[in-house]
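Justification of resources, computational component.

The compute hours requested in this renewal are based largely on the per-chain cost of generating structure records like the one below. Each record pairs the submitted sequence with a full structure-token output. That output is archived, and it is also reused by downstream analysis tasks.
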Amino acid sequence: MPPLITREIYQLLRDAALEVRPLRRLVESCGSDLVHVDIEGWRLTLEVDGNHLRNCRYCQSPDGREVGFDSWQRYGTDPVSLLSTWELAQIERLLAVRNAV
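The structure output for this chain reads:
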């Protein structure tokens, strides 16, 4: 299987921002800066600061491929950094709405 690449995860986040794919927030620790989400079977761990999305710490695809923050740091591109300002705001809005439910 080919490894997960940044662009693949960015596209997933972009589709969630456009509400083409549903973003579902999973259980999390109280007070944690990490948010666990599911997007059609993809599991992502996102780092947030208040209501601001900072980066993607981990991703696992439905077929079991995994990639983490260390890989993105090594190559210099986190999937969150590829989001436009509008896309980022949409993801942050979705995370805030899912938190309020």
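The mean pLDDT is 87. The chain has one domain: 6-100.
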